[in-house]
Amino acid sequence: MGLRRAGKTSAREVVFHRLPPKQAFFVDTTPGVVKEDVEFWVPLQLWEIPGSQGLEALEAEGAHLSHFSSLIWVIDAADDYTESLRALFRTVVSAHQQNPSLHIDVFAHKSDAWDEYYRQDAFRQIQDRTINELEDHPSPRVQELAESIQFHLTSVYDHSVFEAMSRVVQRLVPTLGFLEQTLNYWSQTLDIPKCFLFDVPSRLYITTDASPVDPPSHDVCCQYIENIESVSQLFQRSMLERRKARKKKVAYRSSCSSKIAGDNTVAYWQISERLALVALVQTHMFDDHRGAIEMNVKSLRDAMLKFEALEARKRRPRPPVAPANANASSKSDSSSLRTPSVHASSAGNPNGG
């Protein structure tokens, strides 16, 4: 959500549809509500409400705010954002009344239009004015939002919009705690300064280790993934031919590494069809302990594949339970509870054994 020309559509197109950032300036204004199923590691549906409409647009679409998990408000930080902050405050108060558990994120967008000093100053003003308005609200529940609302400085011309969107979708991953603990243990065991678990097609990271995320490290990892994707198409045809030549199907898990400035190396390991582990390692540590690192990556990959298969089974629709027959309904409650399993086994083996 956000006012007109705030950059909502361009951010969505760049992140989820691979729109080149140079073409973001020519994106047309969204005339109506847009809802789409986004390709991500977990099922994700994204709704965009045009700036000329508010939360009432959801009712016209037959939806209610209680069906949503997160709300993103986009502010054009390169323009006068006074009216946008007023609309944000009205929207936040109304949204909290309809869905108290809703996560709210504010994107101070188009930050590339100004120098570093003005960017930080505008970002600080947006945070302070929003938090002060929430703290002055008479409702104690609305005042609590001042501590939970999240702010992000974003632009489509760097990877900041990907980092901000990653933080938003992380809260939608039900197993985020387990994934964070796994990466923490892995990075601490191998003394790796920073690592990310990326959803490669969207270039959003699902989780990272406990150390703070600094923009330069995130930029390096994102750029490395983009470089790998740009050259991987050259080898896809030969890999497909090799797969066809083999009688047994082989799961190819690519990996590569490159030395960067200083005594640092960026390493990439494919975990599954969508997931990849990207880490920043000291070069001498990577060279001296390459075998131990690869062995731990293999263990992590095996665990993640089992975990991913388990999550996929959970998301499958359950088959309908066969209704009990008329004779079973006349039995006692305890017998009727056992009836479906008895009939299911007899149906699978008509001869009874």
TrEMBL record:
The entry's keywords: GTP-binding, Nucleotide-binding
GO molecular function: GTP binding; GTPase activity
Listed Gene3D superfamilies: 3.30.450.190, P-loop containing nucleotide triphosphate hydrolases
UniProt feature, compositional bias: Low complexity: 323-341
Spans annotated as Disordered: 311-353
Ranges of Polar residues composition bias in the record: 342-353
A cellular-component GO term for this protein: fungal-type vacuole membrane
GO BP field: cellular response to starvation; negative regulation of autophagy; positive regulation of TORC1 signaling
Family as reported in the entry's similarity comment: Belongs to the GTR/RAG GTP-binding protein family.
Free-text function comment from the UniProt entry: GTPase involved in activation of the TORC1 signaling pathway, which promotes growth and represses autophagy in nutrient-rich conditions.
Assembly, per entry: Component of the GSE complex.
Official protein name in the record: GTP-binding protein
Protein source organism: Calocera viscosa (strain TUFC12733)
